[in-house]
Amino acid sequence: MTAAVAVEGLQKRYGDHEAVRGVDFSVAEGEIFALLGPNGAGKTTTLEILEGFRDRDGGRVEVLGRDPGVKADGHWLRGQVGLVLQDIAVEPYLSVRETVARNAGYYPDPRNVDELLDLVGLNEKKGAKVKDLSGGQKRRLDLALGVVGRPRLLFLDEPTTGFDPNARRGAWDVVRNLRDDGTTIVLTTHYMDEAQALADSVVVIAEGRIVASGTPDTLGGRDSAQTRIRFALPDGAALADVPLPVSDVEDGLVTAETTEPTAALHRLTGWALDRGTPLDRLTVEQPTLEDVYLSLTKEYVQQEASSPSSARERKAPAGRGRRPGRSRS
Ligand SMILES: Nc1ncnc2c1ncn2[C@@H]1O[C@H](COP(=O)(O)OP(=O)(O)OP(=O)(O)O)[C@@H](O)[C@H]1O
């Protein structure tokens, strides 16, 4: 598979702060790739370098085969790459349809505006002024503006922040449809269920370094992790009678961990049936992506919480938030 994005040894410093410290990853053409990490990890810096908005201090970067740091390739790249950023500047007094139609005019082969508004769930708001949209509706408009030019590669920066649960699922469908249409997608998100639902591959960065990479199902050894079985100890049963190795008991709730859940459950339920006592509050869980992510990033988050950078208000580099409104012809 060809790489849509290739990053090797990427480095970026702000003064004496090393924000990105030798990051390597690649994004295959046609996949959804998620860049995850705690606040201040270096995700936005990395994306901004890929988008051509920031210079790097070291390493190699290729986006669709071109170096985004080479200004002469900027025009070509802008025609191939779509961006959905936080706080895109749009005309507040234009209608939703006018806004999308105006941006469609910047591209040689834009999507059909009405079909696109339908796709992102803004059909009923076509005539509404942008200033009157809710937060979640504005993000849908951002998404429409990011894809109206049929980009080969789409950067999505926290695409569903502020969405209600139904709108999030709608946005996920849009993103999947785009991928199925052949668009490569690079997204950042703080929602692990979003990464789980969408991403074909993920990279977790913390303090400017990669701490784990893989698929959502295998990240951090998740596929070989222990299954957790929990149940209330039946009335009259002693802990010693439980036919599984117990790892914890809290408030009468017994936890056992196993790498062979089928056999373990068979033993446990057989034991309960023989005794004629139900297993109340029985649950069987594998670690979620969020569990794995939290354990991978725990040490970095503690340091981040006490670092002044976590409180810094990030300013988009000049032009970043305004790009979809600029002419790309
Ligand atoms: N323009 C800047 N000037 C100085 N320091 C910066 C600048 N931009 C980012 N940093 C610092 O670089 C580090 C990485 O920041 P970055 O915005 O890339 O993190 P992030 O992973 O996107 O975080 P978040 O999840 O909070 O958006 C942070 O410590 C941040 O304070």
UniProtKB/TrEMBL annotation:
Region feature Disordered, mapped onto this chain: 301-329
Annotated Gene3D superfamilies: P-loop containing nucleotide triphosphate hydrolases (3.40.50.300)
Pfam families given in the database record: ABC_tran (PF00005)
Compartments, as annotated in UniProt: Cell membrane
ABC transporter domain boundaries: 5-232
One Gene Ontology CC term in the entry: plasma membrane
GO molecular function, one term: ABC-type xenobiotic transporter activity
Family: Belongs to the ABC transporter superfamily. Drug exporter-1 (DrugE1) (TC 3.A.1.105) family.
Protein's UniProt name: ABC-type xenobiotic transporter
